[in-house]
Specification:
By secondary structure, the chain is of the alpha+beta class. It has 5 helices and 6 strands; from the N terminus they run βββββααβααα. The longest helix has 19 residues, at 137-155. The N and C termini lie far apart (58 Å).
Length: 156
Amino acid sequence: MICPHCHHDGSHVVDSRPSEDGTFIRRRRECSHCGYRFTTFERYEEQPLLVVKKNGARQQFDRKKILNGLVRSAEKRPVSIEQLTKIANTVENKVRARGENEVSTTIIGEYVMDELKDVDEISYIRFASVYRQFKDVDAFMSELESMINHNKKHSK
């Protein structure tokens, strides 16, 4: 690391601390030539991730879009922003863990619904109704029956 004071190419780390959210590391450094102390921030480099939409269009993955959809589905529900943020983080981690450069909206939507199902049933149904674009009442009822069966399995 080049010293910002004397421009010598050599420093050593005095102290390292992760950020509160764990997305970067703050490092306190000291120049081995002049002793000047300075701070650097280290982040891991993410590979670009593209989302393939149902119409075939591609766009860059944006965690905020997931969070916005979750917030809309949980409107006026007893679900905290922390719970929704945790779901968005979990979904992003699952998507990135696939190790692929492209992921379909179908996979992302399924991940979101898997996480949301156990947090709030009404929010889940709201999200599913938009995501699955129910064509009629029968499709909606089928989703409700699936959810009821899921609850019966997990309550035993």
